[in-house]
Amino acid sequence: MSSVGSTGAPPGTERRAEILRLLHVNGFQSVSHLTELLGVSDMTVRRDLKRLAEHGELRVVHGGASLRHATLRTADFTSRGAQERGAKRRIAQRAAELIEPDDTVAIDAGTTAFELAAALPDDFRGCVISHSVPVLQHMLGVPAVRVIGLGGELLTGSQAFVGALTTEALAGLRANTVFLGAAAVGQRDLFVATDHERPTKRALIECAERVVLLADHSKFDAAAPVRLGTFDDVDTLVTDRPLTASMAEATDDAGVAVLVADGE
User: What pTM was estimated for this model as a whole?
Assistant: First the structure.
C-alpha cells in the first residue's frame, strides 16, 4: 500500500481503500485484525468502519465489518438490495428487537431478510435456519451462532435453495420465529414471484411458532402472480410507513400486530 504522502490523498483514504480490498477478498474483517494489519489504533479502525458504513460501502457487525451483501451475490440480488435500502435496513433493525438471545430463528430468502440476518442482536447466541445463500455466507462471520443450512435446488434469481429437499428438511425443524419476505402484499393476500418459491415459504411458515412478515412500503403497491397465503398466516408485520386505512383494517381483522420502523 503506497504512502499517503506519495499520492497527496486525504488522510485515511488509502487506509479505507485497503479495508474495502480486504473485505472483497475475505468477506469479513475483525477490528483486531485490521488494527494489527494497518498499524493503527482500535479507535481509528472503528472510525474508518463507521465512515465507510455511512457511505454504504460495508456493514459494521459484531467484532468487525462485512460487505453489505455476501460475496457470492449475483448482480440481480445486489440491484434488488439497493432498492429501498434504507427502508429495508430500518425494518430489519426493528424486527431484530423481537429476537431473544437463545431463540431459533428461520430467515427467508430475499434482500430484506438478508438485512435481518445482518441486524441480529450482538447478544444473540441462538440458532439460525435458512435456505438463503447470502444469509448463510453472512453467518460465517458470526461464529457464536449455530447455523442450519437447508439444501435443495438452487434458484439463482433468489439465491436460495428450494424444492422437495428443502421442504423435507424443514419438516423436521422448529423455530421460534420465521422472518418472511413477499414480493407483493394485497388487502388480504400475500404473493410471491414464482411458484418455485411457494412450497419452501409455506414450509417456513409451518415450522415456526411466530411468523413475522418484513415488507417495505413498495410491496403494498407491487404485483406478483403467485398467491402465498393470507394475513391469517402472519402474526406480526414490520414495515417502514404507517398503513393505509384499508390495510390497517385488514391487518386488524386478521389479528396481525403492526410495527412501523422509525424514519431516517
Answer: 0.74
Domain spans, the chain = 4-67, 75-260
> Can you name the CATH fold of 4-67?
Arc Repressor Mutant, subunit A (1.10.10)
Query: pLDDT digits over 149-160, tens only?
Result: 999 999 988 889
Closest CA to 112 of 128, 129, 97, 134: 134
Q: What are the pLDDT digits (tens) for 196-235? A: 999 999 999 999 999 999 999 999 999 999 999 999 999 9
Sheet architecture: strand order including 64-67: 28-30, 64-67, 58-61
CATH 3.60.15.10 assigned to 75-260: no
Give which of 2, 13, 8 is closest to 51, Cα–Cα: 13
Distance CA 113, CA 126 (A): 17
190's grid cell: 400475500
Structure letter (DSSP) for residue 84 = T
